[in-house]
Amino acid sequence: MRANVRFLREEKMEELSNTESQPGGEAMDGELLSRAERRDQQIQRILEAAKTCFVRSGFQGASMQQICAEVGMSPGALYRYFPSKEAIVEAICEADRQDDMTCFGALRDATSAIDGLVAGAMAHITHTSMKGSAPLFAEMRSESMRNEAIRATVDGHKGEVAAMIEPLIAEAIAQGEINPPVELPILMAVLMSIGEGMAINDLPARGVPLDKLEIALRAMLEGMLRPTKSTPAAE
């Protein structure tokens, strides 16, 4: 009974806090936030706080209590949204997946496989650099080597990205557009590993100009995929 009372009290305090955080207790359109909107706001606050804690203390060093302190939320309230750090990582990866779908949308509209890969990679590099995602990405990849649950989440996300890229390359091979020197599974493994390395190193933040990075990326892909003829963008 006491646990139920405490749960209801925390929920009510959380709702009041959410309402007070808006000017006049209202959303931008002048209407009170719905329960779903308040929940979405709280989830975003938790995820941002968790990212800060993971980068600052590492996944192992960051506790749920530290995340609670960072977001300004009681443990009881936090556990209603996420039962574990692994669940938080899964939510972070889901948000990243949505970003990746947008970045690699250029694959569908490209006139050639290499053009599509360059456009998608540059969109992803620019987006992740602007968000400052490299430290978090490196921490999550490192933790995935020790934690099976995190590994499953990270590898699942990586597999979804590969699933967007592989059909484009397979079609280009079938049509004789490119002639890579190795089988498609090996080629994909190499490309995905290169992509991970670029995400972790955040070359734009290290002073590499985006235009020069694009030139180098295109030259690398042409060397690996071996186009059978020059494309207008490559000339």
In short:
By secondary structure, the protein is mainly α. It is built from eleven helices and no strands.
What does this structure look like?
- By secondary structure, the protein is mainly alpha-helical.
- The protein has two domains: about 80 residues, Orthogonal Bundle (Arc Repressor Mutant, subunit A), CATH 1.10.10; about 140 residues, Tetracycline Repressor, domain 2.
- The chain is built from eleven helices and no strands.
- Helix 2 packs across helix 3, helix 2 crosses helix 8 and helix 5 runs parallel beside helix 9.
- The protein is elongated.
- The relative contact order is 0.09.
- The N terminus is likely disordered.
- It comes from Mesorhizobium alhagi CCNWXJ12-2.
- One of its GO terms (molecular function) is transcription cis-regulatory region binding.
- Pfam families: TetR_N.
